[in-house]
Amino acid sequence: MDKIRGWFRKITERSGKYVGTRSIQMTIALSFTVVSVCCLCFLGVLLYKQFSRKEETLMQENSRQLLEQTTINLEDYLRSMRRISDAMYYSVIKDKDLENENLDEEMTLLYEANKDNLVSIACYTYDGKLVEAAPVANEKQDAAVTSQEWFEDAKNQLENFHFSTPHVQNLFDDLTYRYYWVVSLSRTVDLTYGGTSMLGVLLVDMNYSSIERILDKANMSTVSSEYIYLMDTDGEIIYHPKQELIRMGGYEENNLSAITAEEESWVESFGGQKRIVTQRPISYTGWKLVSVVPLESFEMGRNSTGYLAMMLVSLALLTTVILNQFVSARIAKPLRRLNDSVREWETGNLKPDIYVGGSLEVVHLGRTLRSTVKQIQDLMQDIVVKQEEKRKSELDALQSQINPHFLYNTLDSIVWMITGERYDDAVFMITQLASLFRISLSRGKTIIRIEDEIKHAENYMNIQKIRYKNAFETSFDIDPEILSCCTVKLIVQPILENAIYYGMEAMDGDGLIMVRGYREGSDIFLEVSDNGLGMPEEAAARLLTEGERTRSRGSGVGLLNVHNRIQLRFGAQYGLQIESCPDEGMTVRIHIPYIPYTEETCRQLEEGKIPEQEGGRTE
Amino acid sequence: MNRDRIYLGIVTAMIIMVIIYASYGLLNGGKEEPHYSVSVVIGNSGSDQWNAFKEGLNQGANESGIYLDIVSSSAFSGLAEEYTILERELENGADGVIAALCDTSDPGGRLEEIAGKNQIVLIASDLDLENGYALVQPDSHKIGRAIAEMVLKEKNVDGKTVGVVSGNQRTLAGRQRLAGFQTRMQEECADFTACFLAKTEAELEKEMKTPPDILVALDSSAMELALDYLQKKETSKVRLYGEGRSERAVYCLDRGMIQGMVVQDEYAMGYESARLIRKCLEHSTGSMTQVETGFISVTKEEMHEKEAEKILFPTVH
Q1: What's the pLDDT band for A124 if we cut at 50, 70, 90?
Q2: Calpha distance A91→B289 (Å, rounded)
Q3: Amino acid B1: pLDDT
Q4: Which chain A residue shows the shortest CA-CA distance from B17?
Q5: Which member of A22, A242, A303 has the closest CB to residue B4?
Q6: CB contact, 8 Å: B23 with chain A?
Q7: Omega cis (within 30) before A281
Q8: A-chain residues near B316 (CB < 8 A)
Q9: What are the chain B neighbours of A244 within 8 Å (beta carbons)?
C-alpha cells in the first residue's frame, strides 16, 4: 500500500512538475486529451475484442450450421440407401425361393427408381457366386468377390450394415471402358434355395459422386478457407476437397488426430496454423464429418475490424483534441486576459484596464482585482494628497519663517523713521512692505508669475536700501519674455537677503546687487550677483548643504530652503547654483523650468504635478 | 506557448497519420492478390483423357489465383493450327498460356517467338530444356527404365524376343525413354537388343510378321498403336508393356491385354503447370523452369489398390 502511495506521489510530482510549466490552456487540453486517449483506447480495444469475438462466434455458428446441414443431407442420402437395401432384403429376397424364382424384376425396379444415386445392386452367395444384379451386366471372370473388402465386412459382422470406403467397382465388365467410383453398402442376407436357408451378401453400390456432390456443395457454400471432409472409422479419408493434393503430398490433413478426439469441437495447431475443428458422427456408418475453420480465415475480418476501430478511435481522438482545444481556450481565454491585465499593472501602469468576463469565477476574480486596484489607487492618491499637504505645510512653514525677523526689522525701521519725522520715507516703506506682503500672501498660492516675484524682490530691496541707508545699489535686468512664466514664490528675496547680509554689510556705498532674468531653451535662469566679499568655492558649495550657518546670521531663510523648495516643486534637476570667489563677489543662479503661467499650469503645479513644457520637455 | 503548439501539432499529425494508415488498411485489407487470366490449349480438350489434368489444373488455379480458360478444341491438325490458337489467345488478353504441343518433333522458331514475348508453360512436351521453356513433364529416362523393370519381371526374359514400339523418336523425350529402357534391359541381359523397333503402324505391320514374345510401347500413342494391332490380329500370346493413359489402355490392363503399364500422374501435371505459370507471370521462377511430375508402374493385380486407383481412375463417374 505504501509502495502504491509512493508511486502515486512520484507520478503526481513528476506530472505536476511538467504540467506546472505549461499554460493553463495546455494543461486543461493535455489533461482532457490524456483522459480521452485512455478512455477511447480502452473503448477501441473493447470494441475490437467485441467485434472479433462476435465475428468468430458467427463464423463458428455458421460452420456448425453448415456441418449440421451437411450431416443431415448425408444421413438422408445414406438412409435412403439403407432403405433400398432393406426393401430389397425384407420385401424381395426374404419372400423368394431362389430355386424357382429370381430377383431380377424387383431388383431392376428398385435400381431404376434410384439409379441417380446407385451404380448397381447385386446379391451374392457366401461363396461369391452372383445370384442377381441390376443393371444386368457381365460379371468379371476374375473379380475375386469374396476377397473384396465389402464382402469380407459383411461376412464378418452379420447383423450390421457395412459402408466401405470409396473404391472403383471391380465386379462387372463395361465395354465402354467406364469405371465407377462407389461406396459399397453390404450386409449378410438369408437366401432360400428349395426351402433351405443359406447366407449370402446383398450389395448396394452407391454412386460416390452423389456423396461428393453433397460435400462439394457444402464446401462451395463456405466463404472463407473453411472446409468439410469425411472420414471413416479408421480415419481414412472418404472425401476431402483436396483429396488429390493429399495423395500428391501437397497437402496434409490431421485426420488421425480427429478420429481419436472425443470432443465435439476443439482448437488445434496443425501445419503451422491454428484451426477450429468440429466433428459430427454420421449415423450407422461410423463415419465422421469434420469441419475445419482455419483461424487465419478470421484474420481479414479481424484486421478490418482492427483498422475500423483504429480509425474510429483516431477520428474520435482528433475531434476530442480539437474540442479540448476549443473548450480549454474558452476556459483559459478570460484567465489569460486577466493575467495580461495583471502584467500591465506589474509593468507600471497604475490604472490598468482589468478584464472582467468569462465564467462566473473569473468574473468574480476580475471584479475583485479591479476593486483591489481601485482601492490601491485610492490609497496611493490619499498618500499623494497627504504627502502634498505635508509638503505644503512644510512650505508654508518655511515661508512663514520670513516674517518674524524681517517684519520686526522693517517695523523697527519704520518706527525709527517716524520718530525721526521722516514721514515720506515711512510711507514709502510701508507701501513697499504692503506690496511685499500682498505678493507674499498671493491669496495662499505657492506658484506666482515671475513678474510678481521680481516685484516682490524690488519691494524687498527698496525696504532694505532704506534700512541700509543706500549702502548699495540694485539693478534688475529681466527678459520680458519670462515675466509671465511660473515660479515658486519668495525664491529671489532670500538670495537678496543673503547678498545683503554677506556681501553688502562691509561695503561703503559702492556695493552692487544685480538681478538678471533670462531664458535658455526650456529653462529660465534668475541670477543674483553682488560685488561683495564673496567666499571660497568650498564654502559656497556648503551653502546648499549646511543650512545652520546661514540661519545663524541671515534672516532665517537660507539658500538651502530656496534650493529645497525649487527641487520639491520642479524636480531634482532644478535648484540653485552658486559661483563665488573671495573678494570678487558671489553669483547665485536660480534654475527653474520654462512654464508659462496659465490657470491650468498654475493648478497643476499647485497639485504637485509638472505640466508639459513648451519646449517639449516633460517630467 | 510555442512549445505547446508544437506538441499539439505533433499529436494532431500523429493522429492524422494513424487515420490515413487505418483508412489505407481498410481500403486495401480485402484486396486479393492479382488474378491472372491463363488460357489452356490442349488438343481434343473435351476428351476424358484430360479429366485428371483439368482437375489438377483447377486446384492449382484456385490456389494460385488464376482464371482458367480451357480453349475448346478438337485434335489439332498440326503445330501451325495450335500456334495460331496460342497467338489468338494471347492477343485476346490472356496473360499466359499452358499448352500441350501436339507434335514436339520440330517446334520451330514460331514457338520460340511466342515464348520469347509471353509466358508459356508446356506440359509433357518433351522439348529440349536448352531452349529455356517452362516445362511440366515426367522424367522420360525414368519412365523407360520403369517399363524395363516390369519387363524384367517376366520369366526367362533372356530367351524371349522383345519388340519395341518406340513412338516418336524425333523428340528428346522419345529418345530418352528408349535409352532408359535399353540401358536397364542391358543391365540385366547383357546381349539384349530389340528384335525390331517400330515407330509407325506401317512399320509395326511389317515387323509383326515375326511377332515377339514381349511388346513394349514407349509412349501412349505407341500403346494405342500396339493395342490396335493386337486387337486386329486377335492374338493374346504377346505380352504387352508400356506407357499409357487412355481409358482404353486402363481397360485393357484390367482385361489382361496389357501386363504392365506406366501411368503418368496427370493430376499432378495439371496442378504443377498452374503453379508454374503463376510463378512465370510473377517472374519468380528463377532456375525452376522445369517441374518433374511423377508416374506409377501398375499391373493388373495392382490396379485396384487404393493408391493406383486414384491415378488410374481420376474421374469420378
Answers
A1: very high
A2: 63
A3: 56
A4: A314
A5: A22
A6: yes
A7: no
A8: 181, 208-209, 212
A9: 55-56, 59, 267, 271, 310, 314
Instruction: Determine whether the interchain pair A321/B11 forms a contact, defined as Cβ–Cβ distance below 8 Å.
Output: yes
Sheet containing strand A227-231, edge to edge, reads A237-239, A227-231, A288-294, A273-281, A265-270
Q: How confident is the model at residue A552 (pLDDT cuts 50, 70, 90)?
A: very low
Selected from 3.40.50.11690, 3.40.50.2300, 3.40.50.1010, 3.30.530.20, the CATH number assigned to the domain covering B140-264 reads: 3.40.50.2300
Matching fold, domains B36-137+266-294 and B140-264: yes
Is the pLDDT reported for residue A361 higher than 60?
Answer: yes
What is the fold, at CATH topology level, of the domain defined by A96-211? Answer: Beta-Lactamase (3.30.450)
Is the CB of A310 less than 8 angstroms away from the CB of B317?
A: no
Of B29, B256, B271, the CB nearest to A300: B29
A459-480 pLDDT, tens digit per residue, is 988 888 887 877 888 899 999 9
Answer whether A307 sits within 8 Å of B25, measured CB to CB. yes
| Shortest CA distance from B307: residue in chain A | A247
Q: What is the pLDDT of residue A478?
A: 93
Number of A–B residue contacts, CB under 8 Å:
98
Which residues are CB-neighbours of B57 under 8 A, at least 6 positions away? B40, B68, B70, B98, B270, B271, B273, B274
Q: Which residue of B has its CA nearest to A242?
A: B59
Residues of chain A with C-beta less than 8 angstroms from the C-beta of B263: none
Residues in chain B with CB shorter than 8 Å from the CB of A250 are 271
Does the pLDDT of residue A296 top 80, yes or no? no
Place of cell 545683503: A500
* A580: nearest Cα among A528, A619, A509, A615: A528
Alpha-carbon distance of A206 to A191, in angstroms, equals 22
Closest by alpha carbon to A489, among A604, A569, A572? A569
Which residue of chain A has the CA closest to B31?
Answer: A300
Cβ-based contacts of A25 with chain B (< 8 Å): 4
**Domain residues of chain A, as ranges?**
96-211, 401-606
Q: Which CATH superfamily groups domain A401-606?
A: Histidine kinase-like ATPase, C-terminal domain (3.30.565.10)
Q: Higher-confidence residue: A553 or B98?
A: B98
> Is B29 an interface residue toward A (CB < 8 Å)?
yes
Assigned CATH class of B36-137+266-294: alpha beta
Q: Domain map of chain B by residue range? A: 36-137+266-294, 140-264
- Please, which pLDDT band fits residue B260 given cuts at 50, 70 and 90? very high
Chain centroid, CA A386 distance in Å: 52
Which of A227-231, A478-482, A564-568 bottoms out in mean pLDDT, i.e. has the lowest?
A: A564-568
With an 8 Å Cβ cutoff, is B21 touching chain A? yes
The pLDDT of B172-176, averaged and rounded, is 81
A527 has a pLDDT exceeding 90? yes
Chain B residues 244-263 with CB within 8 Å of chain A: 247-248, 250-251, 255-256
Task: Supply the angle between the helices A360-400 and A402-419 in degrees, to the nearest 10.
Answer: 30
Mean pLDDT throughout B21-34?
76
What are the backbone dihedrals phi and psi of residue B99, each rounded to the nearest 5 degrees, phi first? -135, 145
Q: What pLDDT was estimated at residue A402?
A: 56
Nearest CB partner across the interface for B313, out of A179, A248, A321? A179
Contact between chains at A318 and B8 (C-beta distance less than 8 A): no
Tell me the whole-structure pTM to 2 decimals: 0.63
Nearest to B15 among A29, A180, A314 (CB): A314
Query: Which grid cell is A400?
Result: 512663514
CB A529 within 8 A of CB A475: no
Q: How does the average pLDDT of chain A come out, rounded?
A: 83
- For the stretch A453-472, what's the b/e string if a residue is b when 16 or more beta carbons lie within 10 angstroms of its beta carbon? bbbbbbbbbbbbbbbbeebb
- A297-306, B50-59, B193-202: which is most confident: B50-59
A134-159: per-residue pLDDT in tens?
888 888 888 788 999 899 999 888 77
Using CB atoms, which residue from A165, A178, A321 is nearest to B15?
A321
Least confident of A28-42, A61-75, A192-206, A545-559: A545-559
